[in-house]
Design a protein that fits this description.
Helix content is 25%, strand content 32%. The protein has three helices and seven strands; from the N terminus they run αβββββαβαβ. InterPro entries: DUF6482 (IPR045508). This is DUF6482 family protein.
């Protein structure tokens, strides 16, 4: 989903979740949208996932799309190595609410 698609989606829908995904040991972030049907869409540019180097950059991009709330999700390498599915819905264990 590129930025224009994200902006159009936000303008037409109100039931979705935005996740800012960080990986342990890295200072790069990706943005993912999950729609009502459970579809997950990464923010892309020219068909490739967009990587942000700072949360401030993420905030500015999301504000431009009309988004003011998201969740910060931290991926832990141990979970990925053992094949454990990330539990984004668990309160305060794997995600933190962001308001900007």
């Amino acid at each position: 989903m590129d930025f224009n698609d994200l902006k159009a989606f936000v303008a037409q829908h109100d039931n979705f979740e935005i996740r800012v995904i960080g990986h342990a040991g890295s200072h790069c972030y990706q943005v993912e949208l999950e729609d009502v049907e459970g579809g997950r869409h990464m923010l892309t540019r020219a068909g490739k996932p967009v990587l942000f180097r700072a949360l401030d950059d993420v905030y500015l991009e999301l504000k431009r799309a009309g988004i003011h709330r998201a969740y910060l999700v931290q991926q832990v390498p141990h979970d990925e190595m053992i094949g454990r599915e990330a539990h984004y819905r668990d309160p305060l264990t794997s995600r933190m609410p962001l308001v900007f």
